[in-house]
Design a protein that fits this description.
InterPro entries: UPF0250_YbeD-like (IPR007454), YbeD-like_sf (IPR027471). This is DUF493 domain-containing protein. The protein has about 90 residues and is α+β, with helices and mostly antiparallel strands. Helices cover about 25% and strands about 40% of the residues. It contains two helices and six strands. The longest helix has 12 residues.
């Protein structure tokens, strides 16, 4: 376990919310991206929520992150998906 000079300690589980267009297959696409990632990662999907208009869907994931570099790489991979609007 190490500290990167911030209050964030790695490795650790981090909640990440992915908000995207509610297109067929969006959730499966995100899971496929996570499963095809260069490093085998542990994650769980804690919550799926549709917007009032059902135009958007949000996924709250708990992802095991081993380093800041790992987080940045994973963020770029997920954000590159054409239907991802935000990652919080």
């Amino acid at each position: 376990m190490y500290n990167t000079g911030t209050n964030i300690i790695y490795p650790n589980y981090f909640p990440i919310k992915i908000i995207g267009k509610n297109n067929p297959g969006f959730v499966d696409d995100i899971f496929s991206l996570l499963n095809s990632y260069e490093i085998s990662i542990k994650y769980s999907c804690d919550k799926l929520t549709l917007s009032k208009s059902e135009k958007y869907i949000s996924m709250t994931l708990n992802i095991y992150i081993v380093s800041r570099e790992h987080f940045d790489s994973l963020y770029k991979l997920l954000y590159a998906h054409p239907n991802v609007s935000f990652i919080i």
